[in-house]
Amino acid sequence: xxxxxxxxxxxxxxxVLINGLRRLEYRGYDxxxxxxxxxxxIVVAKAPGKxxxxxxxxxxxxxxxxxxxxxxxxxxxxxxxxxxxTEVNAHPHLDQSGDIAxxxxxxxxxxxxxxxxxxxxxHHFYSExxxxxxxxxxxxxxxxxxxxxVCDALHQxxxxxxxxxxSAREPEKIITARRGSPIVIGVGEGxxxxxxxxxxxxxxxxxxxxxxxxxxAIVTADSVDIRDLHNIPVTREIAELGLxxxxxxxxxxxxxxxxxxxxxxxxxxxxxxGRLDFNLGAAVLSGMGTSPRxxxxxxxxxxxxxxxSLHAGLVGEYAFEDLADxxxxxxxxxxxxxxxxxxxxxDLVVAISQxxxxxxxxxxxxxxxxKGAFVMSLCNVVGSTIARQTGRGVYLHAGPEISxxxxxxxxxxxxxxxxxxxxxxxxRRFSRQDGIQFAREIERIPELVAEVIQQNDHISKIAExxxxxxxxxxxxxxxMFPVALEGALKLKEISYIHAEGYHAAELKHGPIALLVEGxxxxxxxxxxxxxxxxxxxxxxxxxxxxxxLGLITEGDDEAAAHMSDFISIPRCHPLVATIxxxxxxxxxxxxxxxxxxxxxxxxxxxxxxxxVE
Length: 613
Ligand code: F6R
Prior knowledge:
Blueprint: E1 3-8, H1 13-24, E2 31-38, E3 41-48, H2 51-61, H3 64-69, E4 72-78, E5 93-94, E6 100-105, H4 111-120, H5 130-141, H6 146-156, E7 161-167, E8 174-179, E9 184-187, E10 192-195, E11 207-210, E12 215-220, E13 223-228, E14 239-240, H7 256-262, H8 264-272, E15 276-277, E16 282-283, H9 292-296, E17 300-305, H10 307-324, E18 327-332, H11 333-338, E19 347-353, H12 359-370, E20 374-379, H13 385-390, E21 393-395, H14 408-426, H15 432-443, H16 445-453, H17 456-466, E22 471-476, H18 480-495, E23 498-503, E24 520-524, H19 531-542, E25 547-553, H20 557-560, E26 565-569, H21 574-595
Parallel strand pairs: 17-18, 17-19, 19-20, 20-21, 22-23, 22-24, 24-25, 25-26
Antiparallel strand pairs: 1-4, 1-10, 2-3, 2-4, 5-6, 6-7, 7-8, 8-12, 9-10, 9-11, 11-14, 12-13, 15-16
């Protein structure tokens, strides 16, 4: 979603800002802009479309000397909410005087009433955005102290914000603040970088400060002074990012998504490493911060998330019930937060989020905490808001996921959920021997995934036969039902084929009406309980002319005989098999999208981290 970069320090700030925006491109956006302070004046360049268009515009409009001499500025990638992605709606926005520039992530919910009030005082607005209203509000509050003006303005707004503000009248500082939308400050040598996401900071420094909600910071080239909105100083530690800048590069792959699919044997090994105890037949997940007794006494596990993370939760639901004998349910985070969930101190709520910033998941976490449940998170991004809000949980260690479509984070989420289920299971019904056996299965995951990735060329060939349809159905049973949902989501988001995931038994209750000669049905028919029933459902589809692509267990000739095409999944535990099966579907979606010439890493309308409701 929207991205913020702010920079103060050395010369050539415009290039630093634009390069920072490039690092945030993966988040999804549809226009971009930059404002710098040059010779006592704010100068703005904006463009609809890509950061490359903004870069061309700035280089065409601005003299080369400006690029060379300017040492500070703010920049933004906008994912349109209020008004279409036009140049005028792009950030930065200026106040009435033109001396103050603002970039903003989040939503100002009361912007209409604020705008009406400012208009009645003579303010004129150019854009349809809520952000321009905040810029004017800051300008209106400015009585010679920018910090105080920002505080005063923020006291008047309802909604969420991550902001960076620049004033020509106070040229040595940038003010940044957050509520509900992340801000990270990189502390470099004689330079300070503000960003909504650490990937824009990596090239400069590993030393960062994460702002908390309602923090406001005065940032100069060599200082960061953090206060609350009442001007009381607060202390925030400097953390080490521990991220390799190369991890956020394509490394020779055509797309980040392909790279991230191929990284999975490693990312899964990282997620699993040191977390299995083969002596006790248990999982070691100390970040959960729960005693064996607390786990044994749990009444219920509630898994919450959105999109792909929700699908990981659905696999987890089977694992908790099968392995740990504990009632488990999955809830879409936005639904959970508004439905007045019934929770108690013996309920474990696990928030699943790659980014750790998803607005609905964060709100659901707060709701569950309010209700006194045990709340923990399963995040990939270290130091993210959800990880910090829960204070306990398990990091995925999948490494930076840049492609908008989640791949390696999903498989690591499932792997960690399997380990959590094993941990709970050992405190409940699993014997030591059962535990050791399942731990051995988990240990195999990286190698099972590598076997599927070796079939890349085969899957690429199969994709040619399925790339030209406009509809597709994915079916599965048991833990493969969520895999079908995830396979369909992956295909639709990156290839724009209308794809639906169904329980294999469900097609004949309605959707089967849509099958015509050649409609693709991707059937997950691995050799797990229920396979025979799935084969029966496949025959129902074949009888109506569907073309069946099966995911079958390696060497299962009986299942292969039902398919037009098939991809083999190595034989393993049914819950573990969800991971290699998902990888096969990721590759299928990738190749279909490639054949259709789609923008794989940044699909239209999508954002990597969804920080609005
Ligand atoms: C799909 C995808 C999204 C995310 C969803 C939640 O490929 O990536 O559906 O899974 O937006 O995001 P996180 O996991 O960051 O909370």
